[in-house]
Amino acid sequence: MARRREITGADGLPLTAWDHSGGPGAASGPAVLLLHGLMGRASQWAGTARRLVGRHRVVALDQRGHGRSPKPEGPYSREAYVGDAAAAIEQLGLGPAVVVGHAMGALTAWQLAARRPSLVGAVVLCDMRAAAVGEADQRSWEDWFRAWPVPFPSLDAVRRWFAEEDPRVEGRRPARGEFFAEVMEEGGDGWRPVFDRRHMLRSREPWVHDAHWEELALVSCPALVVRGPDGDLGRAEAQEMVRVLPRGAYAEIPDAGHLVPWDQPEAWCTAIESFLADVADVADVAHAPDVAAAPVCRAG
Which helix (H) or strand (E) holds 122? Predict the structure, then answer.
């Protein structure tokens, strides 16, 4: 069972992390920090954590504005998110850690690796674009948030709407319904998100307006870029990210969308385990620039 740990974020904000203790031999691999994406929460990494605790200490962070961590009015800048992740590694004694990030968490992972390389031994970057997405994309998110029929009368209604009725959904995606059910809390009038949608829009602004290729090129540790064919990150951009990364590798998970770790949990975990096996002695690898780049991984 994960132990709740409290840390102090970059600007003094108290944050909640969940420390998964491994069994015998857990210390044989590097520590792993799991960073959820926008609107996510640390508890959603439970399946990934269970797979990794056999050889790793695994910590999942509820980032500012998410999960059990506070929801201040700000800041929701890249500096704040990166500083929080650095604080988690330093205060919990994880470094150099493998930082696994989904979407926004992936951007935080590679920015942390670029800015504080001594803290990061390897990164896994799941379905996050390096290119700016543009103002029209932000407006579409504003419209989407307004379309949410909150409060939802039940968790079943949450699951049904996000899996089947959400205008952004094509077909039926049960994993998506479960994902959003886990980020809801019950109030007197029904079920509402645990986050403030205004804060989510503010958190998106840095990748709406700015590209992040330059920092990607500064990631000197091994890096795995993961995508699903139906996700936000296109194949051409993903492969360009691998090319830009000094030691990049690539994994494509079949039959997955943006929520790769939850659409295809077995293939996702297999891809990560294969990557970690290639960089098993990650602490030494992080300080050995003459070591060959990590090989390309292909899942499925």
Answer: strand 120-126
